[in-house]
Amino acid sequence: MMRKSKVIILALILLVLVAAAVFVVAFVTKEDQQLSESIIKKEPDQTELPSQLYNDFAKLLTDDGEKQNDFKEISLLIDDNIISPHVSTDGGSIYYLSDDLDAIMKRSLKSDKQEVYFSDDLLQDTEELIWSPENDEAYLNTTKGFYLYKVTDNSVFELSKNIKDISYSLNGGRIAYQYINYISDENYFSVSNPDGSNYVNLIDIQPVDEEASDGIVFGWFPDNQTVYYAYESSDVSGSEFEKVNVRNKEVSKMDDWGDIGEILFAPSFGKVLYVIFDNENFIPQIWIMDEDGSNRRYTGIDNFLSKCIVQHKKPILVCALSEKVFGVDSNDVIVKYNIETSGIEPVTRLDNAKVYNINNILLSQDDQKIYFLNNIDQKLYVVE
């Protein structure tokens, strides 16, 4: 009888322990869930943060908008799998890399004639074309490094594998780039001739590590002798924004403006456009300033400058306005921003039947036509 009582007591104790364990697990799970929900609320998905300006235009840009008759129409121009489209200097043709044919194609805008301009096995590994201002050469940005393609004789010249992020001066006579060699512990911001000769190391970037390799942004000043340069090192809060004279290496330090992401010039209008990422949601904001760094102001456009272009004849910035800045399936519209007056007007309306994720915006010589690459289908479209 005593043994039976002990067994019952032990069973009751075991039941109490199991119940307590279940309660603790449920409590911890609930707390973890609440904590997770709190974290989610504090850090929203960046792809779900539409531009405020986009929201402001939302009703106007729908098919039922009052000004729909003022909008320009979008139509398909080139049905191909396109990489790096580029308008020729005379405005008569568009060059691009066909991902289907592994060839550089030339498409006439006057006769719609299309031809293979250059074909090489190296194009199978090419991810981007960087055309010179005069269209007489282009860099093939490949998985193996940079190659210089000469249009005149269809020759290809290999550059150092330590070169990255090439940018032409506006006259095409020089290039700026980052030279980084982890083995020799070298990390320079440099300039040279397009073939890599007569190079000058302008700035010694430290430290030499992989984080530093992604930390620089630069753009050529219209005088072809000055480069705007921003660098965010691993031990510096914000970006060091500087002007560098290519001839004498003189560096003019500017203010610490935060996390600078891109730089673009409006050469004929004395303005510099640049992107700053806001601290809260890391959203790219387009700002504008005078060449000397004065009169800084926020344009109200949240996007990357790679989705914008400055008109040839007027101080107008043509930009894609994104529903979701980081969304690869964002339904974009095109707007015009007046650099002098800060006025913004829509160009295309929101089309729910066809999604356009706009990139590589190009302009005709008279600025009347807008060309763009749709990231959704990789085809080229025209706005007119």
Would you count the extended β strands for me? 28
Q: How many helices?
A: 3
Morphology call:
globular
In round numbers, the mean pLDDT is 80
Strands across the major sheet, in which order?
1-28-27-26
Low-confidence stretches: 1-12, 21-49, 233-237
Tell me the strand percentage band. Answer: 35-45%
The rounded Rg comes to 27 Å
- Helicity level: 10-25%
Largest sheet: 4 strands, antiparallel
The oligomerization state is single chain
- Category by helix and strand content: mainly beta
Cα separation of the termini: 98 Å
Topology:
Elements: H1 2-42, H2 52-57, E1 74-78, E2 82-87, E3 93-98, E4 103-108, E5 114-119, E6 126-131, E7 137-142, E8 145-150, E9 155-158, E10 163-168, E11 175-181, E12 186-192, E13 200-204, H3 210-213, E14 216-220, E15 226-231, E16 240-245, E17 251-256, E18 259-266, E19 271-277, E20 284-290, E21 297-302, E22 308-310, E23 316-321, E24 333-338, E25 344-346, E26 358-363, E27 370-374, E28 379-383
Antiparallel strand pairs: 1-28, 2-3, 3-4, 4-5, 6-7, 7-8, 8-9, 10-11, 11-12, 12-13, 14-15, 15-16, 16-17, 18-19, 19-20, 20-21, 22-23, 23-24, 24-25, 26-27, 27-28
Architecture overview:
This protein is mostly beta strands. The chain has a domain at 2-43. The protein contains three helices and 28 strands. It has a four-stranded antiparallel β-sheet, with no helix packed on it. A four-stranded antiparallel β-sheet has the order 2-3-4-5, with no helix packed on it. A hairpin with a 4-residue loop joins β11 (175-181) and β12 (186-192). The protein starts with a helix and ends with a strand.
